[in-house]
Each structure stands twice: as structure tokens, then as C-alpha cells.
Design brief:
Layout (H helix, E strand, L loop, with lengths): L21 H6 L36 E3 L9 H9 L2 E7 L10 H12 L1 H7 L4 E6 L9 H15 L4 E8 L5 H17 L2 E5 L5 H14 L7 E4 L6 H6 L3 E5 L8 H11 L4 E4 L11 H11 L4 H16 L8 H4 L35
Parallel strand pairs: 1-2, 2-3, 3-4, 4-5, 5-6, 6-7, 7-8
């Protein structure tokens, strides 16, 4: 049984206003807003010609889960597009900000937002939000700060909606990364929680193998470990050893969705999961439904599409006891008049207020 715990944090900071001199930007070759930049963002390798859904409604015959997406760095427009595309639930792993955090308070506020504000924000657009809590591998190398984070993790890991310890693992395969990866595996064992593993971008095959070796060494069951950011080099070993194999559809640095189609064609759908890992970089929060559509167009059986883009994520993470299909099949009506700590997702817009979908029978 996972222990319950609570942590209340209130922080008030004075906001200061700084006048910007755009001449300083020009002097250092920076560009002010609305200036012309010679930059063409890259795109996902394949843009399907159509997505099998109606833009303004959800087709509940086609439901998706994105089990790895960093929604704190996305906009509410993304939530609306995702819901319209049939995404009913997301899992947001704790990760780094793009620059190192420098004090424990930044971790505390971030973890609080994952289990608080972001969960509320998603609900206001009809999407169920879950998360994982962990110390990411890049920031494990700041050992004095990492020690403080390790003391903080148990306070958040057992909160409602937290489905795993993650994303944890290796980045540069340093001794510090190894130390805190192992400590977090022990925490997962102590709390009887799932683990989401981040596999390194460099020397991925060896790093993935070692990550699984360490999990086995610490007594974790492969069926309770989701190994993410796989590719064609790692998939066979991950599946052969009984772990869940997740794939990230992310431009250039990870997997394209055309490659994902061929992985499913070769290996089938058992224990394979598709996600987007969309974040503050050039990424696509609709990568899962787009990949599903491409699979269908290229002859992958619909049952395999449902498994890799919905059912397997549900099967893996429902082991946590924190996520179940009834969460979105029997949802509460959207009411954007609601507030979280006095704050609204709206900025002057008319709130959406759905009527209850329940039907009541009068018993006399």
C-alpha cells in the first residue's frame, strides 16, 4: 500500500519590472521580438494528409494516451488540439528545465505544479493528467542539490496522480548519475512504484542494456519498468528481457513516425508504447495520433494501433493504481469557471461549461 503524505508550500515573491533597451540586444546580436530570424524549424518526418477525427469533437472510437509529454512547457492551444485529436490522458514525467536548477525550492515548486496546477489545467480542457516524480539524470551531477532532492521525492511520489518514479536513468553515464539512479530504484521498491527510465542519447544501446542490468540487480520486476526513448538498436533486447519498450516520436533526435511503423510491423504490438515527449523544443504534441494514422495508412492492423497508442500505456501504468480507464470514460463535465488557488486558465474568454452527461432516473 502506498503511504499518503502531504506537503504544503506557500511562496510569495515580488515581481520587478525591468525596462528593456533593445539597443543592448542589437549590440550583442540578439533579436528583439518580431524581428526577422533566419531560422526554419525542423518538422516531424511525416505529416499525414488527414487525421481520422473531427476538428471540433472527440471520436471515442479513437482514443489515445500520450504517456510521455511535458505539458508544463506547452500552451492551452495544445490541450485543445490534443483533445480534438482524441487524446484522453497524458503522463508528464518530471524533467529538467533546459538549464540547471540551482536550489531545492525550484524542484519543490516544480513538483507541486505537476501534482497541482498542471493537473487542474489539463482537466479544464477535458484531458486527464498524471505525472511521474524523479530526479532527472542531467541534474543528478549536482550532488549537493541532488541529496536535497532525494529527501524531497518521497513527499511527492505518493501523491494522487503520480504513476511512477521517473524519468530517471543516465545521460553521460557518470558515477553521480549511477548513484542517484540506484537510490531512486530503491525508493521505487520501498514505495512499490513503477519506474520510467530515460535512456541516454549517446551510446544508447550500451546505456539501455546497462539500465536494465541495474534494474535487475536491484530486484525490480521488468514488467514494472518502462524503458523509454528506444530505437531499432535497443527494441529487441528490451522486449526479450520482459520490459516495456516506449518510443518517442520526436524530430531528428529520436524516432520519426515512419520508422515507428516499421518497428511495429517487425515486432508486433506486445509491450510497445508510442509517445511524443513534446516539450519546450521543436516537437509535436499530436505525434501519437499522427503516428497512429500513419500506421493505419501503411497497413498496420488496427488492433496493433490501439495497443501501441492506447492500450499498452494503460496496461503498464494502471499497475500504479493511480490511472484507470473509467477516469476519462466517465468524466466530470468541464467547467472553466472553476479556479485553482484563486487562478483561472482563462484570460478574459467566456468559460466553457458542459452539462452533466449523467442520466438520472426518478425512483418514487
Amino acid at each position: 500500500m502506498r503511504a499518503s503524505c502531504s506537503l504544503a508550500t506557500t511562496r510569495e515573491r515580488d515581481a520587478s519590472t525591468t525596462k528593456i533597451n533593445w539597443n543592448d540586444y542589437r549590440r550583442f546580436n540578439f533579436h528583439p521580438p518580431n524581428s526577422s530570424l533566419n531560422y526554419q524549424p525542423s518538422t516531424i518526418n511525416y505529416q499525414p494528409s488527414t487525421i481520422n477525427y473531427q476538428p471540433s469533437t472527440i471520436n471515442y472510437q479513437i482514443m489515445y494516451i500520450d504517456p510521455h509529454i511535458h505539458m508544463s512547457s506547452r500552451t492551452t492551444d495544445d490541450y485543445e488540439k490534443m483533445r480534438n485529436a482524441g487524446i484522453v490522458a497524458v503522463i508528464e514525467p518530471a524533467f529538467w528545465m533546459g538549464q540547471p536548477r540551482t536550489n531545492i525550492g525550484s524542484f519543490q515548486d516544480y513538483f507541486s505544479s505537476l501534482v497541482g496546477w498542471e493537473r487542474f489545467r489539463a482537466s479544464q480542457f477535458g484531458i486527464k493528467h498524471y505525472c511521474t516524480i524523479g530526479l532527472n539524470s542531467k541534474e543528478a551531477n549536482n550532488e549537493p542539490l541532488a541529496e536535497q532532492v532525494m529527501e524531497l521525492l518521497p513527499l511527492y511520489a505518493c501523491k494522487e496522480g503520480v504513476v511512477a518514479i521517473g524519468e530517471i536513468g543516465y545521460d553521460d553515464m557518470t558515477p553521480a548519475e549511477d548513484k542517484y539512479f540506484r537510490l531512486q530504484l530503491e525508493l521505487a521498491k520501498e514505495l512499490d512504484m513503477l519506474v520510467m527510465i530515460h535512456t541516454p542519447h549517446r551510446d544508447k544501446k550500451a546505456g539501455t542494456s546497462h539500465s536494465m542490468d541495474v534494474c535487475i540487480e536491484h530486484g525490480l520486476e521488468p514488467s514494472k519498468v518502462i524503458v523509454d526513448h528506444n530505437n531499432e538498436e535497443t527494441v529487441k533486447e528490451v522486449l526479450d528481457r520482459g520490459f516495456w519498450a516506449a518510443f518517442t516520436i520526436y524530430p531528428n533526435t529520436k524516432m520519426g513516425n515512419a520508422r515507428m511503423v516499421e518497428v511495429v510491423r517487425q515486432y508486433g504490438c506486445e509491450r510497445i508504447i508510442v509517445d511524443s515527449s513534446a516539450d519546450w523544443g521543436v516537437s509535436d504534441p499530436l505525434a501519437v495520433p499522427k503516428t497512429a494514422q500513419l500506421m493505419i495508412e501503411r497497413g498496420i492492423p488496427e488492433a496493433h494501433v490501439r495497443a501501441t497508442c492506447y492500450e499498452n500505456a494503460l496496461a503498464a501504468y494502471s499497475q500504479s493504481g493511480q490511472i484507470q480507464e473509467s477516469d476519462w470514460l466517465n468524466p466530470s463535465p468541464i467547467d472553466q469557471r472553476q479556479l485553482f488557488s484563486g487562478n483561472s486558465v482563462l484570460r478574459g474568454q467566456k468559460p466553457v461549461v458542459e452539462e452533466s452527461q449523467s442520466e438520472y432516473a426518478l425512483i418514487e
